[in-house]
Amino acid sequence: KLAVTVCLTDKYPNADALSKAAGSGGMTFSPTSVDALDVPGKFGGVRTIFTAFHHFTPEQARAVLRDAVRQGRGICVFEATQRSAIAIVATLFSPLIVLLTTPLIRPFRISRLVLTYLVPVIPAAVLFDGIVSCMRTYTPQEFKMLVADSDFARYEWHIGEERRKSPIPMTYLVGYPSSPTS
């Protein structure tokens, strides 16, 4: 059995939320700010970004990748959103999901009900964020352009899309040193 530990980090950490998410099972969190463009050397292992890389501009995205390469760290980027009509159509259902699941969220808050049902700010914000995320998600071709210069030549890059049970494929970029670093 392989023992794997996961350390959750964020530029603007919410210690309470990270503590609950880390909970148990080899997961920890950093209560201090960690900038993905310049990760402190004390964080070893493989860097993994799930459905958040689209928040970085191309310059910032390249800096995130360059920092991993500079430190000789593997990096994995996975995006569940996609810049496609089917992804945007699927996103159109997100307000309905918000309307159906809001009563199940704990702890119960009257403000959440008001902002969901009386003044539907939360469903509107979720819809807007989902569409913008789809439009900003990098394509495999754009991932390839991000790692095209000589700064990234000493790494192996695997870039593509994986279709599983969802009609929207998972876009991925995985990079690691071509040869062991000393």
Label this structure with key terms.
37% helix; single chain; 6 strands; 182 residues; four-stranded mixed sheet; two-stranded parallel ribbon; globular; alpha/beta
What is the element layout, followed by pairings?
Blueprint: E1 6-8, H1 15-22, E2 27-29, E3 47-50, H2 58-70, E4 75-79, H3 85-91, H4 94-101, H5 110-118, H6 121-136, H7 140-146, E5 155-162, E6 170-177
Parallel strand pairs: 1-2, 3-4
Antiparallel strand pairs: 4-6, 5-6
Helix pairs in contact: 4-6
Give structural notes.
There is one protein chain. The chain is α/β, with parallel strands linked by helices and 182 residues long. The protein is 37% helix and 17% strand. The protein has helices at 15-22, 58-70, 85-91, 94-101, 110-118, 121-136, 140-146, and strands at residues 6-8, 27-29, 47-50, 75-79, 155-162, 170-177. A 4-stranded mixed beta sheet has the order 3-4-6-5, covered by helices on one side. Strands 1-2 form a two-stranded parallel sheet. The two termini are 27 Å apart. 15% of the residues are buried.
Mean pLDDT over the full residue set: 93
Helical content band: 25-40%
| Strand-pairing-aware structural class | alpha/beta
> Largest sheet, described in full?
4 strands, mixed
Write out the strand line-up for the largest beta sheet, numbering strands in chain order.
Answer: 3-4-6-5
What's the order of the H and E elements?
EHEEHEHHHHHEE
Distance N to C terminus: 27 Å
List how many beta strands DSSP finds.
6
- Uncertain segments: none
Number of helices in the DSSP assignment:
7
Shape, per Cα inertia axes: globular
- From the structure provided, what is the oligomeric state, counting identical versus distinct chains? single chain
